[in-house]
Inverse folding.
C-alpha cells in the first residue's frame, strides 16, 4: 500500500500562517496503516498546531476529521459541510487524497501534511520498504517476482551492476542488492535461464509513467 | 446529572476528624451527591454490610470512596469477597490520605488538594459504565507438546486429577534427553528402569492419548477454545480441541567439533554415561587399557547452567569409587545449588576428586596419545596468583553447548508466545510465574524454558500440574469485561495491535454473527475483517489502545474520558 | 573490421593490446588534457575517456575524445546511461562518430549519489546491455533503436563494455558477460584485478561458455600508490577485492609506490599467460605518468604500428 | 501577585509509579502543590496525545512514572511509553517548546522518595523555565 511520512510540523506551520481556522483531515486507509495520517495522527498534529500558534500569540482553531478514505469523491463530499466552515484544509492523507479534495473544493486552499513516500510493504512493525513504482508495465514475471524498478538504484533490467557486493547494494549499504535477490530466487526456482535472456529497453514512454497523465478506463464499468 | 453516593473512610483515625468534617462539608454541597456517609474502617466486613444495605436502595450511578489508596480497597474488597449490589466498576476511590493529607505541608493546601481529587474522582466515576462478568466453559482437555521427562510427568499427574491429556511427541519414542543418563545424582535408581516404568504408565493410562511422530502445525483460538491442528506419522491431520496447552519440548545440545575436540579421548557427558552403564568390571577399560585419569572441563560453554556440574560430580564419584580412577574437575565455579548437591560435592572432595578453578581457559594438547590439560588454578592460592597444573588424562570430558531445539522458534510463532534472549521459550514473569507463558492457557515447563537437570524438571512439572489443575478444576473461567475492545468499523486492519499485544490476545478475525457491519443503504451483512481482542486472554494493559492509529480500541474500564478526568482536563 | 580503429586492428591481429585511462578536467582547461596526452601517447593503443566518472562533473567525454584525436591519441569514448535517455544517447553517437571517434565503451555508470550533484534526477532509461544493443543496431542495421528509422550515414564503432568479475553474485558474472556478447559487444575491459584466483576462476567460466572467442577481454589493473589507498579501496569500494597479502606488501614496503608498481607489473605478466586475455587496461588514476613505466617494465613497448 | 506554581501532570503506572506515590504519602514526604496524579494500568496505556493534551490544556510539565526497563509486567509497555515520549519531544522541539517539559522516570514500587524528588526537581526546573507558552 501507499506509505507516507508526516512532514515536519514547522514546514506545515509556515504555510498555515495566514489562516486562523482550518480543518485537519486524515484518512482511514493506507496512511492509517503506516501511522502517518490516521485519527491518532490527526489528534496529535492538531494539538501540536494549536500549541505552536498559541505560543506565538496567534491562536488557530483546528477542526478534526478522518474519513474512511479520502480518495473517493463520496467521502470527500461528505466533508463539504465542515470544509465550508474553515479557511483552509490540511490533509494528512496521501497526495491522492489531497487532490480529491482539491477537485471538489475549488475555493478552499488544501495543503499536504505528509510526504507520500512510496508503494511498499511492512518489513517489521515500524519499518516499511518500497516495492513498486507503479511503472504500469509489470516485469515481475521475468525477475522472479522481485522488482528491479523499485529496488535497484539504477533500475537495471539485465542483472546487477559491478557494485553488488556480498548481497548488498553499494549505494545503500543496508539495502539488499535486488539482483542478488532475483538471482537467488530464480536459482532456487530452477529458472536461472530467465536471467540469461536479454530484457529489451523498457517502454517508459508509451504506457508507463513518462507518458503523461495515465488513466484507466474500463468501458464495461463506466456508468 | 448523575447521582453519586459518597463514603468517607477515616481509616481508623488516620484522617483526623477535623479534616474529615471539612471534607464532608465540601462534599455535601456538591450537586451530584445522593448521600455522604462516614465510616471508620470501610474495609471491615461490618462496614461493607452497612454499605451493601445502603446500596440496595438503588438509584445510584456511582460510588466514590474518599479515603486512602485504591490499592488498599482493591485488596481488602477482594479478600472479604463481599458481594455488593452495585457493579464494582462504578466504584472509584479518591485517595485523599496518601495523595493530599500526607503529601502536603499545610492543612490548607491539603484540603484544597483533597477537594480537587474528590471532584476529579466524581467526574471520572460519572463516566463509568457497569462492566459485566462473563464465564467460559473449560473442558478438562489439555495438550502437552513434548514427551520428555517433563511432558511425561505432567501427563501422568494431570491424568490422576481426571484431566484428559493429548501427549504429542515429535520423535518415535518417549523419554527425551533423560535417556542419555545412566544414573541420577540424587536417587539410587537406574534412570532407564525408572523411565520405563513411567513410560508404561503413560502408555496404558486411558486418560492419556499418546501421539508419537506427531507435530503441531497450527494453533487457533484462545484459552478454553484452542484448536490445535496436528500432523501424524502418515501426514494425517487432526484438530484437537483443548482448554490449555503445555510446551515441554526440551533442549538440544551441540558438540564442539573443531581441532582437538575431535580427538577420540575428548568425550562428552552422554558418552561417559554410556561407558559407565556398559562397564561391569572393577576397572574402566578403553581400547584394552585401564582408564586411570579422567578430567572434566566445565564452564567452557553453559557457564550459568548447573546441569554439567551436577553430572560431573555424580560421574566423578562413580569413577573414583567403582573404577578406581583419579578424577579432576576444572571449572570456573562449582555449582551446588540443587537439592543434595552440597553433600555430594563434599563427598567427592573426601573421596579424593580434585577441583581446580580457572579464569583463563585451560589448554588441551596431545602428549603420547593422551590428552594433557594445562590449567592455571586460582582456587587454592592467594588472589591474583595462579598455580600452573598439568594433568595427563586418559579422558577429557567436556560440556556440550545447550541450545534451543531447532523447532523452538517456529513453535513460539505457532503458539504466539515469546522467546527469551537465548532463544528458549520465555516465561511470563521469571520471579512469580515461572511456568506460565505470556498467553493465558499456555504453559512452558522444563528445559524448553531453560536447560535443567531432571530433578528441576520434575519440580516444574509439579508446578504446571498445579496451575493447570487449578485452572480447569472449576470447569469454567470467569473474567470481567474490563478489557480492550475493538470497534470493527474503525479498524483499518493494520496489524499494529496483534503485533504489540504482550499476551497475544488479539487476532484478526472475520466478524460475522456479532459485531456485524452493515453497509449503509443496502441492509446487507458484510463480513468485516477486523482485529478482535479475546476478553478471556486480555490483561487490560492498554498498550493496544494507545498504539491504534485509527483510535478503534477502547479500554472498557479506563476510557479516554476517564483519563482526561483524572488529568483534571475535562471540558 | 567494425570500425577500423587502432585498438580494433591490434586486437584483430592477435597482438596483446594496452589501453590507458584519462579523466577529463573539471572545467574547460585543455592544457590538463594536453599534459595527460603527453604522458600516454606512444605507450598505449587507445585511451579511455571517462564520462563524468563517479558522477563528478567533468568535461564531456565526446568533446575530450575529439580533442584527443586532434592531439594524435586514439580515444575510447565512455558513455553512461546515467545521464542520457535514448534520444540523447543516439544523438551523441551521431555527433561522436562524426567527430571521428571509433571506439565506444558502454556503461551504466556510477550512481549519481556518489558524485557532486547528489540532488540530480538520474535517467537510466537503458542499462548497459541495452546500450550495447542500441549501438549495435545503429551500426549493423543502420537504424535507430526500435529498428525502423533509417540513419543517414554510417555508424562505425568498435563496441566495448566493462565487466566486474569481483561483483556478486559471482556465478552470474560470466552469464552477464554472455548477455553482453549476445547484445553485440566486441571488447571487454574488466574492473581492476588484485584477486588473481578469483579472476582465473571467472576466466575459466568465460572460456567454458566460449565467450573469449566472441569478444576480446582486456584485463584491468590499477597500481596501488600507498598502503592507505589499498586499505581504503579494499574496505570501501564495492566490487573490488584486494587480498590481504597484497595490502601487506604495500603497507610494509619502504617505498609503497614502487612496490605498487612492482605488483602491477607482476600482475600483468601473470595475466598475459591466461588463455583468453587479449590485452591489459591500465587505470593509473591521476597517476598517468606511471603507464609508460609499467608498460616498459612488462616489456610491452614499443606499441605496434598496425595498418 | 502570587509566585508561579507550575502545574504538573504525573502519569503513574499501577505497577511502579502509583505504589511509589502511596509510599511517598506513607513516608509523609512533601510534594509540590500543583500535581495531578493519573493512575494507569501500565505506562503502555499512556497515549502520545495525553502528553500533548496535558500541555495544551494547561499543564506546564508532564511526568511519566514507569517501571524500570526490562521490568514491565506487560513486557514492553514502558518501552512503548518511551517511544511515544520521543515522538512528543520531536514535536515540541519543532514548535519551539522545551522538550524537557515532558519527562519519563523509571522507578519501582518502593521508590517513594525518588517519586517525590523527581516531582520537586521538575517543579523547580519548570519554575525557572516559566509557564508553558503553548497552553490555551
Amino acid at each position: 500500500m501507499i506509505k507516507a511520512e508526516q512532514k515536519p510540523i514547522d514546514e506545515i506551520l509556515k504555510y498555515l500562517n495566514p489562516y486562523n481556522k482550518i480543518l485537519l483531515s486524515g484518512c482511514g486507509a493506507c496512511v492509517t496503516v503506516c501511522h502517518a495520517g490516521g485519527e491518532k495522527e490527526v489528534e496529535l498534529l492538531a494539538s501540536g498546531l494549536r500549541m505552536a500558534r498559541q505560543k506565538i500569540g496567534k491562536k488557530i482553531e483546528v477542526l478534526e476529521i478522518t474519513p474512511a478514505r479520502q480518495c473517493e469523491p463520496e467521502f470527500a463530499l461528505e466533508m463539504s459541510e465542515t470544509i465550508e466552515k474553515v479557511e483552509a484544509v490540511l490533509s494528512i492523507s496521501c497526495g491522492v487524497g489531497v487532490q480529491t479534495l482539491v477537485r471538489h473544493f475549488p475555493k478552499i486552499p488544501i495543503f499536504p501534511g505528509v510526504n507520500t513516500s512510496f508503494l511498499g510493504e511492512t518489513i517489521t512493525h515500524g519499518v516499511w520498504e518500497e516495492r513498486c513504482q507503479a511503472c504500469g508495465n509489470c516485469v515481475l514475471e521475468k525477475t522472479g517476482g522481485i522488482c528491479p524498478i523499485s529496488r535497484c538504484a539504477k533500475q537495471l533490467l539485465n542483472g546487477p551492476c559491478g557494485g553488488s557486493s556480498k548481497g548488498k547494494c553499494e549505494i545503500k549499504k543496508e539495502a539488499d542488492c535486488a539482483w542478488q535477490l532475483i538471482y537467488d530466487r530464480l536459482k532456487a526456482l530452477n529458472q536461472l535461464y530467465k536471467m540469461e535472456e536479454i530484457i529489451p529497453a523498457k517502454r517508459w514512454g508509451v504506457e508507463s509513467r513518462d507518458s503523461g497523465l495515465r488513466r484507466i478506463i474500463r468501458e464495461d464499468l463506466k456508468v | 446529572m448523575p447521582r453519586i453516593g459518597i463514603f468517607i473512610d477515616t481509616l481508623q483515625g488516620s484522617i483526623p476528624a477535623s479534616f474529615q468534617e471539612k471534607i464532608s462539608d465540601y462534599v455535601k454541597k456538591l450537586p451530584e451527591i445522593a448521600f455522604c456517609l462516614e465510616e471508620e474502617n470501610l474495609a471491615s466486613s461490618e462496614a461493607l454490610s452497612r454499605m451493601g444495605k445502603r446500596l440496595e436502595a438503588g438509584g445510584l450511578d456511582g460510588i466514590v470512596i474518599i479515603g486512602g489508596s485504591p490499592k488498599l480497597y482493591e485488596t481488602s474488597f477482594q479478600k472479604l469477597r463481599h458481594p455488593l449490589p452495585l457493579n464494582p466498576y462504578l466504584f472509584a476511590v479518591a485517595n485523599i490520605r496518601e495523595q493530599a493529607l500526607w503529601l502536603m505541608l499545610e492543612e490548607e493546601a491539603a484540603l484544597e488538594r483533597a477537594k480537587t481529587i474528590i471532584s476529579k474522582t466524581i467526574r471520572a466515576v460519572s463516566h463509568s459504565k457497569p462492566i459485566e462478568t462473563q464465564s467460559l466453559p473449560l473442558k478438562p482437555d489439555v495438550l502437552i507438546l513434548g514427551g520428555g521427562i517433563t511432558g511425561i510427568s505432567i501427563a501422568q499427574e494431570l491424568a490422576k486429577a481426571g484431566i484428559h491429556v493429548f501427549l504429542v511427541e515429535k520423535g518415535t519414542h518417549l523419554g527425551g534427553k533423560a535417556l542419555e543418563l545412566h544414573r541420577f545424582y540424587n536417587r539410587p535408581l537406574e534412570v532407564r528402569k525408572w523411565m520405563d516404568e513411567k513410560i508404561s504408565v503413560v502408555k496404558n493410562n486411558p486418560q492419556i492419548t499418546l501421539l508419537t511422530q506427531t507435530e503441531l502445525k497450527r494453533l487457533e483460538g484462545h484459552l478454553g477454545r484452542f484448536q490445535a491442528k496436528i500432523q501424524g506419522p502418515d501426514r494425517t491431520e487432526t484438530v484437537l480441541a483443548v482448554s490449555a496447552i503445555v510446551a515441554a519440548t526440551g533442549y538440544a545440545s551441540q558438540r564442539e567439533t573443531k581441532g582437538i575436540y575431535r580427538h577420540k579421548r575428548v568425550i562428552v557427558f552422554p558418552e561417559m554415561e554410556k561407558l559407565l552403564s556398559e562397564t561391569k568390571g572393577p576397572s574402566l577399560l578403553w581400547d584394552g587399557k585401564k582408564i586411570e585419569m579422567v578430567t572434566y572441563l566445565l564452564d567452557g560453554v553453559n557457564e550459568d547452567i548447573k546441569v554439567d556440574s551436577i553430572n560431573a560430580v555424580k560421574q566423578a564419584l562413580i569413577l573414583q569409587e567403582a573404577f578406581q580412577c583419579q578424577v579432576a574437575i576444572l571449572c570456573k565455579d562449582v555449582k551446588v545449588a540443587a537439592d543434595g548437591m552440597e553433600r555430594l560435592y563434599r563427598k567427592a572432595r573426601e573421596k579424593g576428586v580434585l577441583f581446580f578453578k580457572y579464569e583463563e581457559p585451560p589448554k588441551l594438547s596431545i602428549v603420547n596419545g593422551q590428552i594433557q590439560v594445562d590449567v592455571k588454578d586460582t582456587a587454592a592460592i592467594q588472589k591474583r596468583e595462579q598455580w600452573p597444573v598439568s594433568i595427563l588424562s586418559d579422558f577429557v570430558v567436556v560440556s556440550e553447548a545447550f541450545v534451543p531445539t531447532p523447532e523452538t522458534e517456529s513453535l513460539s510463532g505457532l503458539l504466539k508466545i515469546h522467546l527469551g534472549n537465548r532463544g528458549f521459550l520465555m516465561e511470563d514473569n521469571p520471579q512469580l510465574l515461572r511456568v506460565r507463558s505470556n498467553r493465558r492457557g499456555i504453559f512452558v515447563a522444563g528445559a524448553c524454558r531453560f536447560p535443567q537437570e531432571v530433578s528441576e524438571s520434575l519440580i516444574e512439572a509439579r508446578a504446571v500440574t498445579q496451575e493447570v489443575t487449578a485452572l480447569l478444576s472449576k470447569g469454567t473461567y470467569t473474567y470481567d469485561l474490563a478489557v480492550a475492545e475493538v470497534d470493527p468499523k474503525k479498524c483499518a486492519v493494520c496489524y499494529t495491535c496483534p503485533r504489540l499485544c504482550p499476551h497475544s490476545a488479539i487476532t484478526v478475525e472475520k466478524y460475522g454473527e456479532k459485531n456485524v457491519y452493515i453497509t449503509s443503504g443496502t441492509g446487507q451483512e458484510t463480513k468485516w475483517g477486523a482485529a478482535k481482542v479475546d476478553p478471556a486472554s486480555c490483561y487490560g494493559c492498554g498498550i493496544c489502545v494507545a498504539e491504534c492509529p485509527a483510535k478503534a480500541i477502547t479500554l472498557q474500564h479506563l476510557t479516554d474520558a476517564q483519563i482526561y478526568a483524572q488529568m483534571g482536563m475535562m471540558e | 573490421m567494425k570500425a577500423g580503429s587502432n585498438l580494433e586492428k591490434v586486437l584483430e591481429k592477435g597482438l596483446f593490446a594496452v589501453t590507458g585511462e584519462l579523466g577529463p578536467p573539471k572545467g574547460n582547461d585543455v592544457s590538463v588534457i594536453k599534459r595527460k596526452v603527453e604522458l600516454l601517447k606512444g605507450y598505449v593503443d587507445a585511451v579511455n575517456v571517462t564520462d563524468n566518472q563517479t558522477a563528478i562533473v567533468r568535461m564531456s567525454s565526446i568533446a575530450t575524445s575529439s580533442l584527443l584525436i586532434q592531439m594524435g591519441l586514439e580515444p575510447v569514448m565512455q558513455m553512461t546511461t546515467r545521464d542520457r535517455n535514448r534520444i540523447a544517447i543516439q544523438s551523441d553517437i551521431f555527433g561522436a562518430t562524426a567527430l571521428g571517434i571509433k571506439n565506444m565503451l558502454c556503461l551504466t555508470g556510477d550512481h549519481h549519489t556518489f558524485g557532486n550533484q547528489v540532488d540530480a534526477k538520474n535517467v537510466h532509461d537503458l542499462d548497459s546491455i541495452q546500450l550495447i544493443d542500441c549501438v549495435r543496431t545503429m551500426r549493423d542495421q543502420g537504424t535507430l533503436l526500435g529498428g525502423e528509422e533509417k540513419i543517414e550515414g554510417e555508424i562505425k564503432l568498435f563496441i566495448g563494455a566493462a565487466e566486474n568479475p569481483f561483483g556478486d553474485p559471482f556465478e552470474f558474472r560470466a552469464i552477464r558477460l554472455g548477455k553482453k556478447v549476445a547484445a553485440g559487444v566486441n571488447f571487454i575491459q574488466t574492473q581492476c584485478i588484485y584477486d588473481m584466483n578469483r579472476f582465473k576462476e571467472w576466466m575459466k567460466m568465460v572460456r567454458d561458455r566460449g565467450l573469449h572467442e566472441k569478444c576480446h577481454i582486456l584485463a584491468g589493473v590499477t597500481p596501488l600508490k600507498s598502503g592507505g589507498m589499498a586499505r581504503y579501496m579494499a574496505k570501501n569500494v564495492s566490487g573490488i577485492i584486494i587480498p590481504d597479502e597484497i595490502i601487506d606488501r604495500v603497507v610494509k614496503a619502504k617505498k609503497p609506490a614502487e612496490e605498487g608498481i612492482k605488483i602491477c607489473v607482476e600482475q600483468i605478466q601473470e595475466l598475459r599467460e591466461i588463455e583468453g586475455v587479449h590485452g591489459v587496461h591500465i587505470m593509473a588514476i591521476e597517476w598517468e605518468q606511471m603507464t609508460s613505466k609499467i608498460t616498459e617494465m612488462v616489456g610491452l613497448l614499443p606499441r605496434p604500428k598496425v595498418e | 501577585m502570587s509566585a508561579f506554581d507550575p502545574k504538573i501532570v504525573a502519569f503513574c503506572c499501577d505497577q511502579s509509579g502509583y505504589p511509589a506515590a502511596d509510599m511517598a504519602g506513607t513516608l509523609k514526604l512533601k510534594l509540590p502543590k500543583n500535581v495531578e496524579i493519573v493512575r494507569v494500568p501500565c505506562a503502555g496505556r499512556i497515549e502520545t496525545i495525553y502528553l500533548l493534551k496535558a500541555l495544551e490544556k494547561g499543564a506546564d510539565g508532564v511526568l511519566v512514572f514507569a517501571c524500570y526497563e526490562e521490568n514491565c509486567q506487560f513486557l514492553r509497555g514502558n518501552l512503548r511509553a518511551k517511544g511515544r515520549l520521543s515522538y512528543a519531544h520531536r514535536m515540541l522541539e519543532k514548535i519551539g517548546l522545551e522538550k524537557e517539559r515532558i519527562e519519563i522516570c523509571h522507578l519501582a514500587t518502593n521508590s517513594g522518595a525518588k517519586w517525590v524528588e523527581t516531582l520537586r526537581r521538575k517543579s523547580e526546573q519548570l519554575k525557572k523555565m516559566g509557564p508553558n507558552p503553548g497552553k490555551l
